[in-house]
Amino acid sequence: MLKELETTGSFQTLQHAVVLEKEKKTNFYNTIDREQEGRKKIKALQKQLHDVRQEKKVELQKVKEKMDEEIRVHVEIENFLRQHQQELEEKLEYWMEKYDKDTEEKQAELNALKTARVNDLTLLQDLAKQYEEYEKVIIEDRLEKEKAQEQKKQEQVELSSAIKIQAWWKGTMVRKGLGPYKKSKSKKGKEKGKKGKKGKGKKGGKKK
């Protein structure tokens, strides 16, 4: 600058130096402003990330509770069907044994009546009347057994209906992605969550 003053009588070098210093100062303050703005954006993104994590945590807790409830209901239905099936098997066994026993008893009585009829013709009429009475008893017993068989068929239909209901419920869980079939849907939810985070970061960290 001194040389310039001595030779040309001007001080452009000083002016140029002042301009450069002002530009450096302006750039410095701009850098500080950008850094502060960046910190604000980072804080906003961190807060948004925290909120998203909390939201996902709550959603996972709700899903877990629902899965536990579905498992509990499934176990209760399974236990009920197993108990009902055992009761039906016991009833069936009882009626089969009763039928065999009654048939043997009635057959023995009929054989005794036939033998007595051969030995005593006079007693034939009385025995015939007794036979008719026994025949009525057999018919009534047969009707009772048929009624029991109808009841057993009805119980089997109810068991089949309960099994169909269980299969329908399981199909509903598979179609809607509930209970143990939630896995694939959870992955999609996570992918959507990641895409949502990237998109919000580009827009300047807007709050949800």
UniProtKB/TrEMBL annotation:
Biased composition (Basic residues): 182-208
Assigned protein family: Belongs to the DRC9 family.
Pfam (any one): IQ
Organism of derivation: Staurois parvus
Keyword line: Cell projection, Cilium, Coiled coil, Cytoplasm, Cytoskeleton, Flagellum
Entry coiled-coil feature ranges: 35-165
PROSITE patterns the UniProt entry points to: IQ
Region (Disordered): 176-208
Protein known as: Dynein regulatory complex protein 9
Subcellular location: Cytoplasm, Cytoskeleton, Flagellum axoneme
